[in-house]
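>> received
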Amino acid sequence: RPVTSSLKPRDKVGDGRFTIGYMGFGHAADFAIVAPAIRALMIEDHSIYLDLVGTVKIPEILNDFIDRITFHKPIAKYDSFLQKISTSCWDLGLCPLVKTPFNMCKSINKWIEYSSCMIPSIGSSNTIYNDCMAQECGILCDDAIDSWKSSINKLLNDRVFANRIAANAYN
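>> returned
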């Protein structure tokens, strides 16, 4: 029985917030790819929040928004970790990835975990995420700030599309 079989698709809470989620364990260089886009969006829209799980450190460019950033310590038990993500009310999950030989050999676990919790994903193009995010199972971005910003905005402003991405990836 898959670990995620006990998880239910999450219910959205209409609290007026748009929450961007990211989980990482020491992936500062990966998160740095998307941090400028998050900063730009948080300047433009005060309803955008960031939720971080793991040990990733906040880049200095996001320090002005600390009141809209939530940190969660790493969760050792995998079932508890998935339950935390499943109940997070994230509107999207980020999968930025620096293009290095090491990263090209990694697994797609982050995408699988987001998808199993019905969270639409945005990932780095030309990486391990190309195949799994194809056919509307995620959005792929190059490393440019405008690519990440427009993709995040697409999921923010088009909930039908975001829900379709989440459902496609889940299935």
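>> Helices lie at 28-44, 78-86, 109-116, 129-132, 145-157, 159-170.
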